Amino acid sequence: MVRQIDSLTGDDLQNSNLESLQNALVQQYWITIPQFDESNIRHERYEKARPIIYGSRTVTHRGTIFVFYVPYEGDENLFYYYPGSSYATVGDGIEVAIQGNELVFTIWREADLENATRASHAISSSFKYALSIYQGNVQRHEKEVGRYNNELATQIAAQIQNRLKKLQTDEEISKSLGYPLRERPDNPHTFEIPAIRQRIAKQELNSSRQKPLSLSMANYEQILMAIQSMAQIMEYNPSAFSEMDEETLRTLFLVPLNLHFTGDVSGETFNFAGKSDILIKHKGKNIFVAECKFWKGPKSFHDAIGQLMNRYVSWHDTKTAILLFNRNGNFSRVLKQIPEIVEKHSLYRSNMDSQIETQFRFMLAHPSDPEQEVMLTVMAFEVPNLGTE
Fold first, then answer.
1. Which CA distances in Å does 69 have to 33, 45, 90, 104, 140?
2. Residue 228 φ then ψ, to 5°
């Protein structure tokens, strides 16, 4: 939050509604304790054999996998943190994972041909115990999270005022130097915070075939434009960005997204099999996934495409992006190589038109379903490197 506020320029703050800015930041950093929707718990089962080792012997046992799906609403990151108070674990014999907005509990049960009632009771008891552990753990966060949320608006307001004071002090120093401040003739327009933030909209559903929730092309383009506006600020303020790493740059790009859209925007949010750099959710579903990478050569970029598609993109994700930062000079050469590398990738299907010289758009096949297409936009940025290697 501090990094985001400190990245705003004087024009950004003077031309903005500070109350809207503060509310947007509170919304972004507010933590909501997960609440479980027990009335909509569902389960499924399937048979599976697995090897069990007895000393030097391995015996295959037949059994059944029971999977329980528990919907929840709230901040999934709390599942990965230990509260200051005690913390319990479910123990062995049950696996727990997060898929979208559901906690998934998996239990393997060896075939019990003689007493179905006993088996049912054992499975139900194991699941209910594991669920109670997770419910108890998130409840233990309430005290710390409540204190954090109560102080959030005050902390953000104070940081905004500190930023304004710092910028005003710099302005006063410049005026007292006795020399006029030189203006750039090509100074870009600063982005404005709209009075009413745009709402992320889902695609219309075909009545004959229910499609998964997906991002409309209009919103996709708006998201990319918001990212591009941050890149302009970076281009015209090189000293402020010269030593930033990937994590810091990614955090800065979240600023315009959260100021412009009402979808949930986060960094390092768990999605599918790994962590994504920028993830936008709408109604608990992932609708936009982006990776931030520094250019380290053709192989590294090729691997980044595979990493995004194989680790981060689930079947429902259809709109993606790679934000590619170059600090090695020879930016024209980098731009020339981008389409060549993508077109050689095994998932490549076709090129799409792009109106911006430093952006490239492609259609790729989903790695687990060749009939499912995923749109990828590569946005390349020249990042200043004023220091020495």
1. 19, 11, 16, 5, 22
2. -65, -35
Residue 345 inside a domain? The answer is yes
Number of folded domains that form the chain: 2
**Does 64 map to a domain?**
yes
Does residue 209 share a domain with residue 133? no
Whether the model pTM is above 0.85: no
Q: What is the residue range of 70's domain? A: 35-140
Residue 152 has pLDDT above 80, yes or no: yes
- Contact indicator for 5, 160 with CB cutoff of 8 Å: yes
How confident is the model over 234-240, as a mean pLDDT? Answer: 67
What is the SS3 assignment for 239? helix
In terms of average pLDDT, the best of 2-16, 232-246, 287-301 is: 287-301
The answer to whether residue 22 is domain-embedded is no
> CA–CA separation, 109 vs 49, rounded Å?
10
- pLDDT confidence band for 104 (50 / 70 / 90): very high
The backbone torsions φ and ψ at residue 242, rounded to the nearest 5 degrees and listed phi first, read: -65, -30
Beta bridge partner(s), residue 98:
103
Dump pLDDT digits (tens) for 64-103. Answer: 889 999 999 888 888 887 776 566 666 667 888 888 789 9
Pick from 140, 160, 191: which residue ends a domain?
140
Task: Please determine, for residue 204, whether its predicted confidence score (pLDDT) is greater than 50.
Answer: no
**Pairwise CA distance, residues 47 & 228, whole Å:** 50
Strand partners, 48: 63
In a domain, 162, yes or no: no
What's the CA gap between 281 and 271, in Å, rounded? 10
Residues 136, 218 share a domain: no
Helix pair angle (18-29, 142-176), 10° resolution: 140
Alpha-carbon span 374 to 306, nearest angstrom? 13
In this structure, the answer to whether residues 306 and 376 fall within a common structural domain is: yes
Last residue of a domain, which of 88, 107, 140? 140
35/143 Cα distance (integer angstroms): 15
Q: Which of 295, 186, 193, 280 is nearest to 232 (CA)?
A: 186
Give the chain's radius of gyration (CA, Å): 25
